[in-house]
Amino acid sequence: MLTTSATVDRATFEARTGWQLKPEGACKGEICVPLGDAGPDSDTVDLAAIADRLGMGLVHDDQVGMWALGPETLGGRALATAEAPNLTLPDLDGNEFELASLRGNKVLLVAWSPY
Questions:
Q1: Are the C-beta atoms of 65 and 74 separated by less than 8 Å?
Q2: Domain tally, the chain
Q3: pTM recorded for the entire structure
C-alpha cells in the first residue's frame, strides 16, 4: 500500500490491505490478530503501530514524501512461496522473454521505478 501519510482512514486501510479492523483486532479470513493499544481508537489508522503488530514492513521516502506498507508476515516470512508468477517482457533486443524459461534455476529479479 502506498500513501503520502503515516496515518490513513480506516476504510482505506481495510480496502487496500484486506484486513478488517474489529473490536477483537485485525481480521483477515479466519485469522484475527489482537491489536491492543495499536488498534485505531477513531477512524484513523496509525500505520507504524499497526504494521508492527501485523508484521508488515513500513518504509518512508522523505525525498518524495511517500510511505509504503508491505504485506503481512504473520508466519515470519515475507513471501508465501518462492515461486514467481510467469512474466513475459521484452529483452534488450525487443524479443519476448518468459521468466518461466528459467524455472528450476535460482533467479535474482531487480526491479526499479522512478515513481
A1: no
A2: 1
A3: 0.62
